[in-house]
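Justification of computing resources. Each target in the renewal requires a structure prediction run like the one illustrated here; the chain below, 345 residues long, is used simply to show the kind of job we budget for.
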Amino acid sequence: MSGIALAGIRAVRLGGPWLALLALVLAAALAFGVGRYPVSLLDVARVLLGRLTGHAPDVAPAVEAVVLQIRGPRIAAAILIGAALSVAGTAFQGLFRNPLVSPDILGASSGAALGAVVGIWLSLGVLAIEGLAFAGGLIAVACVYALGTALSGRDPVLVLVLAGVVIGSLLGAGVGLIKYLADPYNQLPAMTFWLLGSLSGTHPADLLPLAGPVILGTALLLLLRWRLDVLSLPDEEARALGLATGPLRVAVVAAATLVTAASVATAGIVGWVGLVVPHLARFLVGPGFGRLIPTAALLGAGTLLTIDTLARTVAPVEVPLGILTAFVGTPVFLWLLARAERDWS
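Resulting structure tokens:
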């Protein structure tokens, strides 16, 4: 490779996090401004500045309500969930040294889905449904890890992944059973819509239960970023460098599952973000987790925010997030597979 090409790659990797941050800022500006009630960026700035300074903004009350009560919480949730799924996908792909791994691999999404549909079936409140979804995700991963540990042989990582597939299939059957038993006029449509993923019902009160686990899990993964670099080596070499691989794997799995379960409990099943965005981030900044995790978080936040803006504006009725992420993620992932093989070799 020529010196000019190497210099170009180095420049892109140095500027990658800033490009991701710029994309997120543009996505946020677009999300605040467009919709059935258009709001100018100047009015958005006035409302946000007024909230920060404590002064009443010089805008119509309807504009302030749209910015602070309707779009603001939804934008914040999209940023948190997009960042969380992307960071979890980055951690899982590095941990398992497998570019096809996503946050769903350990059953977190399936467990959260089963918890949510059980809550809807029992006609519980929204907070109870989100709590069951969160608990379902954590319990599913605990079962996968216990099964993987009990059956671990020559390749414990492969056994853990297969255990995730088995438990995920079982939980999927549980979701199907609850949907079969549900009231077809009220409960079944609610379950189906929730499983497709949406942020349309996000309220300001939903942000704190979401932000706490996401910030905690992401901070833990950031603290472990240098150890994740070492963990990408074969286990024998990592242990020779003094790394306790077993406890580190438990910590990474717990942190990534925590952010995934919190995201699924809030927005339902949103696929592809945790699979595709880590590849885009790696393409921008390379494999080092010190730069890869923050870049993936920024890219994931901007990506899901843009998709959510499309979901509420491209059609007269809102399109579920899971459908749009599949339409966007599939061709992007195929393109990345064609280009990125050498990065994983």
